[in-house]
């Protein structure tokens, strides 16, 4: 939305929440862990290394977005 700038905070929250973790305090290195929205995800770090996240046993209904 034009004029509704939150400096990317809401989109950042959505990406973190979809990946199943969220920083409690950005400077503390403490994270909350939750369910992954997707079946799996791969994060590529600046140094080229990759971190994979995979779920086991998630119900199909939990992995489907249906507004």
UniProtKB/TrEMBL annotation:
* Coiled-coil intervals: none
Q: What GO cellular component term, any one, is given?
A: cytosol
Q: Where is the Glycosyl hydrolase family domain?
A: 1-61
Entry GO MF terms: peptide-N4-(N-acetyl-beta-glucosaminyl)asparagine amidase activity
One of the GO BP terms on file: glycoprotein catabolic process
Give the source's domain of life in one word: Bacteria
What residue stretch is flagged as signal peptide? none
What the entry lists under InterPro entries is as follows: Glyco_hydro_92, PNGase
**What Gene3D superfamilies is this protein classified in?**
GH92 mannosidase domain
- This chain's protein is named Alpha-1,2-mannosidase
Q: Which organism was this protein described from?
A: Arcticibacter svalbardensis MN12-7
């Amino acid at each position: 939305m034009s004029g509704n700038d939150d400096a990317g905070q809401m989109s950042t929250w959505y990406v973190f929440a979809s990946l199943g973790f969220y920083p409690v305090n950005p400077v503390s290195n403490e994270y909350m862990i939750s369910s992954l929205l997707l079946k799996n995800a791969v994060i590529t770090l600046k140094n080229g290394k990759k971190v994979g996240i995979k779920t086991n046993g998630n119900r199909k209904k939990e992995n489907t977005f249906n507004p």
